[in-house]
Every structure is written in structure tokens, then in C-alpha cells.
Amino acid sequence: MGDFQSKFQEALRRRLYPNAPLHLKQIAGAIGRSENTVTRWWRGETRIAGDDLFRIARYLMDRGDTAFLREIFGGLLPGDDRDVASEEKALELIRAVMRRIHAVGSDEGDRHSWITAEGQMAVATAGHAAYVRVALRLPQGSGDLAAYAMRVLGWIAVTERADRTVVIRHDGRRVAPFAAERIQEWLDECADRIRHVRRLVHMDQQWIEADHTSADAAAAAIARSAFILRVTRRPWAIKALPLDRVSDPLLGELMSVYHQAPHQLIHAAAKLGAFTTSNLFGVNHDEVVSHHVATGFGFDTSLLVGINVLARADTDYAMMVHARILRTRREGANYNELVGTIDDRHVHYLNLALPEPGPQGRVLTSTVMLACEPVSV
After folding, report:
1. How far, CA to CA in Å, does 89 sit from each of 58, 94, 144?
2. Are 365 and 342 in contact (CB under 8 A)?
3. Which of 9, 41, 129, 370 is in Cβ range 3.0-4.6 Å of 145 for a Cys bridge?
4. pTM here?
5. Residue 109, Cβ density class (10 Å: 0-12 exposed, 13-18 middle, ≥19 buried)
6. How far apart are CA 103 and CA 94, in angstroms?
């Protein structure tokens, strides 16, 4: 990305703390991306799409800063007119310039496609949003058209990068069945030329990132997601309980170890045979990885160990677990009663979460299952 990357980094650096009161987290929230994603763009670890760059510029413009794009692209962009036509023209110019930048050093740039509700794969030469506008005959300025196609129609967006990374975007609560089948077939067909798959799932006004090391793993997760979406879900209800209310003997022993010899917590859990009903998580900043998944409740753990919890097919459950583990690392031990749905089962259980001491400390969660009932589809 050469000169573009250095100009992009410098333009953003001047607008961020401590040079200005703005933080990457604010930008990420404003454009609907995770802070990790924006950080990787800034560092040059992954490539930013023209639409995302434009969203950052529009956010800064709304704050009164109109110079961001001009500092990066110079005189290639139109003037500062703020009407819709000028924004559309600027966006198309940015896309064109970004395609040329990303194509440097490779045979071709990014390739965008949609998989529609009918299971058809359609090439989106001018970008995902432009294809939706033309296909659905929508007027200019109709909002986030890509998000509309995913959220309302159940379409799946696919981007093939020149570095053999594939980015798949879909809604967390609606995926058209034929679209899910077609993306699985396509991933299987193209597996030999795919190095890495990034899956972005839209949930509750944010994008959840799930990384998959192979096309097969991504296809399995999408297949599982499509199945889970057909299940009647119970929204998660979490009731905090006092730690002195722990009455289960095994949980009580784990609590005693936690208070008396916290550095021995994981070793003691293994010695007590607790891992049949316990999970172990590693935490790195805001990433939570499953090191061990409880084996005693009948869930398939083969695709869960060793991956970020947000890569799980059951996105609602993944988000709940992610938030609870980060909270445990921040605030310490906690004890909760939980009711909800995991994959295709309604569950009701008690859960004790204990953090290992130290900056690299893991989190152990141990469960007493009160009810676990299959849900008919």
C-alpha cells in the first residue's frame, strides 16, 4: 500500500489522542467496526476498503474536520460540497483509487460478490452497496444498503482479497437458507486457493469478527449458524448471586483453592476432575480464546477448542460468554444463574467464574447444569 498507507497513518495519527481528544474506539463505534479492526487498518496489518475509509471521513466531517481525505489523496477528490451527489461522487472516486492501490504488487484487486436469498452468486464489480442499489432499484442516499441486504434479505457478502484471504459478512439473526448452502459449496470448491477466512457477523449494531484458519472451518461454522437460526431462541437472562451462596461441593472446593492458593487454581481443578463441567479461557486484551470446553454436557466441542469464542456459530451465546469472561478478568470472581439457549438446547445453570492471578491469567468457569433440553426445529 506504500505511500497511501503512510499518508493514511499520518492523517489518522494527527487526529488521535494524545494529539487530539479522539480515540480509535470512538471511530470504530461510529462506523460500525470493532476497535481491533480499525487498529489493524491503522497499523497496515489489513487493508481498509474504500467504503470504510469514506465512513471515517464522513464521521470526521460531521465533527467539523473536512481535510482528512484531501491529506491522503490530494487533488484527486472533488471540493467540499456536502450534498448527497458530492458524497456519492467522492465515494466512487475513493473506491476507484483504493482498487488501484490494492492491486499494486498483485495480479488483481479485491473481488466482491453477493450470494442472494435464491443461492445465486452475483459479482459486484462496483462494490456491494452499488450492486444492491442497482439490483433493487433503490435511489441514491438510501442508507447502508449492504447492511440492508444482509439484515432484511439474508444475503451473504463475499470479498476475495489478493492475498488469498476471504472476508464473509452476514447478519447474526438472518441468513437465507439457500445462501447458506451456496456459500458452503463455494468455500468447498475454492478451498485450495483460500488461505484464511474472516467472518464478520452483524449483531446489535456492531460487527463481530470471527477468524477461521481454513475454508472447511468457515463452512462448518456457517452451516451451524444457519441451523441455529431456525431454533426458537430464549434471550439470555443472567442473575448475579452472592459468592457466599455457592453450595455445590465442587464449586465450593474451587472457591477454597481460589482464596487460599489462586496460582494453583487450574492445577487443582484438573486434580479435582472439574474439567468435565468446566471451561478454561485465555484473555488477550479484548480477545477471549477457548483453551478447554466442558465435555460432560453433550455439546460438540471439536470446533470450539483453540478458537476465539466470537468465532462460534451461536453468536448470541458467544457474545454473552465473551462479555462475562472480560468482566471476570476486570472485576474478579463472580457467581451467576443463567437461562438461555446454546446451539439447539434451552439451558438453565449455575456458573462460577474465577480468574487466575497475573496479567496473563486465564479464567476458569465451572457449571452446575439445572436443565438442558433439546429444542425441536
Report:
1. 13, 9, 16
2. no
3. 129
4. 0.61
5. middle
6. 14
